[in-house]
Amino acid sequence: MTTVVDVANVSKDFKIHYERHQSLKERLLHPKTGSTEDFSALKDISFEVEEGETVGILGHNGSGKSTLLKCICGVLQPTSGEIRLRGSLAALLELGAGFQLELSGRDNVYIYGAMLGFTRKRIDQIFEDIVDFSEIQHFIDTPVKFYSSGMYVRLAFAVAVNVNPDILVVDEVLAVGDERFQAKCIDRIRNFQEEGRAILLVTHSADQVRSLASRAIVLESGLMIANGTVSDSLRIFREHLLGDTPSNEVNDHSAEVHIDSVTTPSGSFDVHSGASMHFDVHVTSATAYSGNFVMEIFTRAGVLVSRSDAQGAPINLRPGVNTIGVDLPNIPLLDGVFDINVGVVDPRGSNVKAWGEKVATMQVTYGGREGGLVELDASIRQV
Ligand SMILES: Nc1ncnc2c1ncn2[C@@H]1O[C@H](COP(=O)(O)OP(=O)(O)OP(=O)(O)O)[C@@H](O)[C@H]1O
Ligand SMILES: [Mg+2]
Questions:
Q1: 263 and 245 together in one domain
Q2: Closest-CA residue to 377 (of 327, 334, 328)
Q3: Residues 302 and 220 placed together within one structural domain of the fold
Q4: pTM of this prediction exceeds 0.90
Q5: Based on the domain organization, do 67 and 162 belong to the same domain?
Q6: Centre of ligand 2 from the C-alpha of residue 150, in Å
Q7: 108 within a domain of the structure (yes/no)
Q8: Considering only CA atoms, which residue is closest to atom 26 of ligand 1?
Q9: Considering its fold, how many domains does the chain have in total?
Q10: Which of 58, 127, 155, 239 is most exposed, with the fewest beta carbons within 10 Å of its own?
Q11: Which residues are registered as beta bridge partners of 306?
Q12: CB 50 within 8 A of CB 7
């Protein structure tokens, strides 16, 4: 395999200016009393991305995701460490980064293309494709400053994907477009994956990472606290998302509680829409533990269908093997294959104690005529 992105011991410090005197009066009286301090936005980050990989980057607001991408794209210089790229790179950074607001969409396409190393002639050849993809034909000669954020993202995405980069870097922008455009972008990303290009994807959506990424990284206060399989990284991210635990407590949950297996009495997870289902979750605990049981159901495309209340199902685990029974009456799902995640969380529902990602797969069959994910018990009548 070929390494296309090599990030080695990268740190990035920003100088932050502090005002010691808060009020305007004090500032006027003591004009030079501020001080600067180094703020460390990235701390010794190292990882590699191979050809054909899609790496999800997760982390809280301010954890350093955009800073990392900007360093990779060369928009920012790391304070220390080194980044090596192999092949061409196109980036969709945060809104506002990249385009010249006073200029038209058309001019920006050419400028952006030039930044990526394309000649005017080459951009001429793909210009129509770019505009078609963006669907903003009528506004292509309007200054970008008048674009809505959705239009801006459409154009930026259209350029980035039509120049066919070896490495595509996407910072959250997928969340901006409307649902149809998002679906189109995701389709294009899947094509890229099939063509063996590398993708770095920053998102707050665990669903998107689950459905698109082959690996995931988690940043927390500038530190890389996970770099591994999507399910491992999501578990660590979830712990932080729910618990807001400082990064040095990441492994503090230890392996005292463990999800062993999920079974049904018949051994099958096939069920008819509208029928009921029972399954048992076998959990081993080293000690007695009181917490809550949580369950999630996802579609194969990674859409969350349902997550139970993290404080809604208290359990008291005994040392050894425990069984937790789950009853799903009158399953409202229509045809489809659904993945089940289960977990044990603390009494406040804020820290994950044990997690089982895709521990079971439920196959639902439906004979009726309704379409979609769920059967709504709607009564429809003319009034
Ligand atoms: N140019 C800058 N000068 C000073 N501090 C900065 C600068 N750019 C980013 N920071 C700081 O670095 C930290 C990381 O910011 P970054 O934008 O990388 O976070 P992020 O993970 O992308 O967050 P979000 O999810 O909100 O997009 C933040 O504390 C931010 O305030
Ligand atoms: Mg960001």
A1: no
A2: 334
A3: no
A4: no
A5: yes
A6: 17
A7: yes
A8: 61
A9: 2
A10: 127
A11: 297
A12: no
